[in-house]
C-alpha cells in the first residue's frame, strides 16, 4: 500500500489494521523504505500510544519485535455505531412502545449522574468547570463562561457525539438537561439545541433558589 498523499504513518496504521501484527522487515518491504525509516515512524506511533510491540521467539535466530495496533488506534478507523443504535432504538419503540425508550434514556441519565456527582465539589463555578471538563472528555467540545450580567454561567457545546440519535429521539436532549440540573444542583435552561437545528447547544445556569 503506497498511496500518494497518504503519510507513511497512516500507511503503517492501515497496514497493521489489514494484516495484523508485523515485524519491521515486512513493513519496510511493503512500504519500499528502509527499516531505519520504519523504526522512526514506529517510535512516534508508540509514543502516541497508537501501536504496541511484542517480543516473539523464532525457530532460528534472535527473538524479534512485532507491532500491532493499540485500542486507541482502533478508534481512528471509521465507525458507524449511530446507525446500529438507531436501528435498535426503532425496533424497541415498535416492539415495546415509546415508554421503553424513555426508560432507557433515564437509565443512562442515572448512570451518568452517579459518575458525575462524585466529581462535583465546591461552589457553582467550580461545579460548572468540572461539568465542562467531563463533557469535553466525552467529545462535546465544551466552553463555559460567566454570563455578561454576572449572575450565572453559560455552557456551550460545539459538538454532539450522539447527534444522529438525538435528532430522532429528543429524549437524549431532555435527559442531558435533566442531568445538568441534577449534578449542578442549579437552575439550568437550554436556549439552543443542535438536534433541533442550532449550530451548538447552549445552557444558561443560575444558583438554585
UniProtKB/TrEMBL annotation:
The keyword Protease does not apply. Residues 10-52 form the HTH deoR-type domain. SUPFAM superfamilies: Winged helix' DNA-binding domain. This is ArsR family transcriptional regulator. It comes from the Bacteria. The keyword Ribosomal protein does not apply. The lineage of its organism: Bacteria, Bacillati, Bacillota, Bacilli, Bacillales. Keywords: DNA-binding, Transcription, Transcription regulation. Pfam families: HTH_DeoR. InterPro entries: ArsR-like_HTH, DeoR_HTH, WH-like_DNA-bd_sf, WH_DNA-bd_sf.
